[in-house]
């Protein structure tokens, strides 16, 4: 009998059910499966961070935070490069407009960050401080 593929939605539902039953290690496994299948699933990252925080597994939480930030930034960079490649004239005009509105720095980097990434960066600082205090 062929093995049925489980959708990300089903995996998330199972993880949430396990988490509600306080079966955190098993729930973490399901959230990890969701992230493997959908690396940009912010909900799975957030829940996995919370599970590790509840278990006081700060090194694991820090690893998840770093992976989430890197995955998101890499994805944004790839999307931007693909768009720039296909829309050179519009990109030049957009960059000039963004610069005049103060949305990017002189090197062309955005001055404002996605709210989720900003939250993850703050959490990373807190976790890093906890790890320093515990050593």
UniProtKB/TrEMBL annotation:
Gene3D superfamilies: Tetratricopeptide repeat domain. InterPro entries: TPR-like_helical_dom_sf (IPR011990). SUPFAM superfamilies: Protein prenylyltransferase. This is Uncharacterized protein. It comes from Chitinophaga agrisoli.
């Amino acid at each position: 009998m062929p093995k049925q593929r489980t959708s990300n939605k089903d995996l998330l539902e199972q993880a949430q059910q396990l988490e509600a039953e306080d079966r955190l290690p098993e729930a973490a496994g399901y959230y990890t499966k969701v992230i493997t299948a959908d690396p940009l699933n912010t909900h799975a990252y957030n829940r996995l961070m919370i599970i590790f925080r509840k278990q006081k597994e700060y090194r694991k939480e820090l690893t998840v935070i770093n992976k989430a930030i890197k995955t998101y930034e890499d994805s944004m960079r790839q999307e931007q490069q693909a768009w720039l490649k296909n829309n050179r004239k519009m990109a030049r005009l957009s960059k000039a407009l963004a610069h005049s509105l103060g949305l990017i720095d002189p090197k062309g980097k955005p001055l404002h960050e996605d709210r989720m990434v900003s939250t993850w960066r703050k959490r990373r600082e807190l976790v890093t401080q906890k790890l320093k205090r515990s050593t």
